[in-house]
Amino acid sequence: MIIEEIKDFHTDHVFDCGQCFRWEREEDGSYTGIAGHRPANISLREGTLHIETPGDDPEEEAFWRDYLDLDRDYGKIKRELAERDPVIGKAISYGEGIRILHQEPWETLVSFIISSNNNIPRIKKNIGDLAERFGETAGEFRGKMYYRLPSPAVLASLTKEDLAPCRLGYRAGYLIKTAAMVKEAGEVTYQALSSYVGVGPKVADCIALFAMRRYDSFPIDTWMEKVMGQLYAMDNKRAMLSFARETFGDYGGIAQQYLFYYMRYHLG
DNA sequence: AGCCAGGCCCAAC
DNA sequence: GTTGGGCATGGC
C-alpha cells in the first residue's frame, strides 16, 4: 500500500517518541510492528508512505490513515504552537515529524499501566511477553509471529502467578483488577479512566491523548518535569498543567510530545 | 550500593 | 486536598 504526498511525518519521531511500544526500527529506517491485530512494516521515502501488510489489502488504507493520523494538518498546529510560545520552537524542529497515533483504548490502557515507574525498553519487553504468552496470534509476517494483547476477559481470568513470567512486578495485580472492570463494563471509556486500578493522573492523560484524541491532555512524567524545569524554570506539576492549558490550549498534548521527545533524545 | 525509569496506592494528616 | 513511604524489576 502506498500513500503519497505525506508531510510532517518522520518514522523515527512517530514510532520512537514514547507513545507506542510495539514497533521496532529496522536497519533501513522502516518500522515493523503491530496495531490491534494488524502487523505491518512502515517506511517513508521521498514523501511517500509505504505500508506493507500480510494481505496487502488496499481497503486497509482507511485504517492506517486513521491510526497514523494522516488527515490532520500538523504544519498548522506547529505554527500555532510556535506563535503562542517562543520556547517550544526548537523542540518542534527537533521532532518535526511527530504525529499522535490513534491507538486502541484497551491496548493503550494495558500499555500505560505497565509503563508506570518503568523504563521504555523494559515496557516494550513486558508488553511483548504479555502478548506472546497470553494473546491470540495475529499471524506470521516477514518471518516472525505476531500476537495481540490479551483481551479483558482473558487477562481478568489470570492470576498473579500466571503473569509472573512476564516480570510485571506489582503492576500484574493492577492489570488483573482493571481487566475485570473493563470486562464487566464492556468497554474502556474516558469517564472511567481514573477509576481503573493502576491509573493515576499521568497514565489517564496518556490514554486520553494516545487513544481518545483528547489533544488537550498534558501527561507529566519525570522527563516532562525535567524539560519544563530546564526550558520554563518551573518546578511543580500544578504550575506546569496550568501553563500548558493557558499556552497550548487544545494542542497541549501535541506540544507535550515535542517537549518529551526533545528532552529524551536531545537534552537528556 | 544506590538511583532511576512515561507513577500509583494507601494511610496519615 | 495534600504529602510521603512503599513498591517489583532490571540497567547503570
* Number of alpha- plus pi-helical segments: 13
Strand order of the largest sheet: 1-5-4-3-2
What is the helical fraction, as a range of percent? 40-55%
Instruction: Please report the distance between the alpha carbons of the first and last residues.
Output: 37 Å
Classification by helices and strands:
alpha+beta
Instruction: Give me the strand/helix succession.
Output: EHEEEEHHHHHEEHHHHHHH
Count of distinct strands: 7
pLDDT averaged over residues: 97
CA gyration radius, whole angstroms: 18 Å
Instruction: Based on Cα principal axes, name the global outline.
Output: globular
User: pLDDT below 50 for ≥5 consecutive residues: which ranges?
Assistant: none
Into which percentage range does the β-strand content fall?
5-15%
Largest sheet: 5 strands, antiparallel
Outline the structure in words:
The chain is built from 13 helices and 7 strands. It has helices at residues 11-15, 61-67, 74-84, 89-94, 105-115, 120-134, 152-157, 160-163, 171-185, 201-211, 222-232, 237-248, 252-267, and strands at residues 2-3, 23-25, 31-35, 38-45, 48-52, 137-141, 144-147. The longest helix is centred in the C-terminal third of the chain and has 16 residues, at 252-267. It is globular and about 50 Å long. The protein binds a DNA duplex (13 and 12 nucleotides) through helix 5, helix 6, helix 9, helix 10 and helix 11.
Kindly list the characteristics that best describe this protein.
alpha+beta; 49% helix; DNA-binding; two-stranded antiparallel sheet; 268 residues; 5-stranded antiparallel sheet; 7 strands
